[in-house]
Amino acid sequence: MIDDEDRLVRVDQGFYRFAADNGWAASGSSLGRSLWDFVGGEEMKKLQRMLIRRVRGKAGDVELPFRCDSPDARREMGIHIASSSAGTLVQFKAHLRSEEPREFQPLLDPEAVRADETIEMCGWCDRFRVGDEWIEVEEAATRLRLFQRSELPAIRHGVCPDCTEMLLAA
Length: 170
Prior knowledge:
The chain is an alpha+beta fold. It has four helices and seven strands. It is globular.
């Protein structure tokens, strides 16, 4: 839950379990910090700010699908975003829709050695931009020959056109 200044004021045990499962040791210091400290990419921040503004402005609750993959699992999730009657607090409830194990994807490994080259990842659906296309991580790894490299490109977060459209319509 965030307050009227977008600071995290409450999380549940599911938040800490998910953080631990994904190797985020510093999750305990999240409370009191700005939500925007945890959102990658200016496009994603802009779209999420607009979405929260709409929810606070009495547009109603929002339910959206999103992806939250790890290097060895593909996770389809959903998020429910709701505002208090005064619009000062916004609550986020994420839930796992499906999880499939997959071959380890080094591109998603936070410990991987990174090169100066960057690749753009959609911060909502986890697809990658390769040329003019937004494709799944497995296909991006193949096309970019990532398994043959000693260093992987750095990841920059953006938002693909499909997710931009979905978020603006919410």
